[in-house]
Amino acid sequence: MPETPWQRGRDTEAAYRDMFAMIPDGLTFLSLHFNAPGDFEAIEPEYAHIRTEEYALFKTRLIRDWVDQHGLTIIGLRAMRERLRSNWASRARSSGAQVS
User: What is the pLDDT of residue 48?
Assistant: First the structure.
């Protein structure tokens, strides 16, 4: 599960470009925590720039370009939940368990 790269020795764009390039085939959950400037500085002043720089990056076209370049499909948590439920129901049926 890729997540916000906290300890990065390069700029935000390079860190995320590399992250998107390393997403493996199959279902991958990304845990991203970007924030608009204004509030996070009060919570974590030392690292706020990481999240606000990410916020700026995710407002650009680059993310869509990387998704397209790497053949990724973005789905929401509802789609993930439904896939999980379907898989669980299939397993239960194949094992003979009662599915409700």
Answer: 87
